[in-house]
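DM from R.C. (forwarded with permission)

"hey, sorry to bug you on a friday — could you get me a structure for this? deadline for the figure draft is monday and I only need the backbone to look sensible"
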Amino acid sequence: MKKKLPFIALLSCFLLLFSGCKENGIVQTITDVNNAINDFVWVKIGLVLLLGTGILMTILTRFFQITHIGHWFRQTIGSVFKKQVSGHVKDKSAISQFQALCTALAATIGVGNIAGVAAAIVSGGPGAVFWMWLAAFFGMMTNYSENVLGIYYRRKNSKGEWSGGAMYYLQDGLGRKKGFKTVGKILAVFFSLFTLLASFGIGNMGQVNKIVANIEGAFVIPALSETMIFGIDLYKILIGIVLMIFAALIIIGGIQRIANFAEKVVPFMVCAFILGSLVIIGVNYQAVGAAFASIFQSAFTAKAAWGGATGIALSSVITWGFKRGVFSNEAGLGSSVMVHSNSNVKEPVVQGMWGIFEVFADTIIVCTMTALVILTSGVIDLNTGLLAEGTSGDATLVAKAFDSVFAVGEIHLGSIFIAIALLLFAFTTVLGWSHYGTKAWEYLFGTKYTMIYKVFFVLMIMSGAVMTSSLAWDISDTFNGMMMIPNLIGVISLSALVYRITKNYVDRKLKKKTDIKPMLSYDPAIQQEQEEAIKNEQ
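My reply, with the result:
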């Protein structure tokens, strides 16, 4: 433990320093350096690498997301009422397939699905939505591949729980290739370190900061906002304390408790948001055609008048669409695979199909609903990009759209609904990312000390509640992007294996070939155990 203390102390200082720092010379320098790295990671390398990987895996699997669309729908959402899919697992080492999906969606469906989509449309025009869809289409197979590899290379930790993720297929997949043992291990450590750091920013402080801002805006209580304690308003402190308590009750209980919470909240919040969105779109049904026309027309042409005299370049439209699509569904970052690997599933391809559905639900459904609400409600001019009064390129744009239908006199029910939706979306994101960080910590330091991470993660919620600088979020955004580089190296290097596992499954399950041995795990002992479990189920 003594060897771990210096790193823990350094991590603590880093996070505490940037969570509430003011702008000064040093901080400005760090900001400039971070911005340069962020632009390089996300734009110069990341988007090309993400799209390239998605195209590669789509071709290798013969457009699985289209050619087998009926099958993956039946095996995922179509099988949700089957006991082996959504029934609670008696074995404490795993969670159900549906719980794994809900926990993954809990982490991916967040602020980006509301504020992120609004920002993409305002900054990149309606055409950004098209490129967001395209990123999701190819991202489906990237996420599929991650989950296939995650299940194939997972193993049991000292507590008997499943552990999987990019760090394991980098170590035991890429690392087993001749001459790549050290490279695989180094990349696994880097991925885990980036995940750990990103979990405190993107997965914690950034989400909490948005929750606090939206609650203060939707439920104005001057007596609390105007009461200052050490220069911080009491409202922020109280919200932070409440969030810490609720988060602690769930996070300290581990993946089982997180999954139990996620399977109850995620379906409710997604269905409520979709239903509310459909009402808005239904009321403004005459504008639906114009909205889609605007999306497709501006996807391939620059908007000269959009947003003012400067207009929007086509490259900006594409970049905003791809970037927000990835921010939303996280396909390619290697994050959600860490919870998918906890599933009680036996077949890697089956969990891979849940990964396809995850991206479909997050981007094709939820983000599209947000986009259509904005584009049909009149809160933004489809020709000029001018915003309705009192709005900006964030959640206030969506809130204004909901207020256009859900308002009773001076009571803005739409804004209240969006504030609650953001609360649930962002809070469940915090819970999901706590598991990602736990798994990264486990890989770096062992299972024995994961409680240290969980306690520190909960305490950092207060820092997010009172945070005045966005630097902590910006830096963790960079770490978030840096996760994808080692992860995608792993996916690309093991793409042939994903092809073989997929072909093996298709031959056995769809072509009904009975003389083929299933490919379930890299570990012979786990392979045999899973084969026997499948036979017993039959």
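R.C.: lifesaver. The first helix runs from residue 5 to 19.
me: no worries. The CA atoms of residues 37 and 478 lie 7 Å apart.
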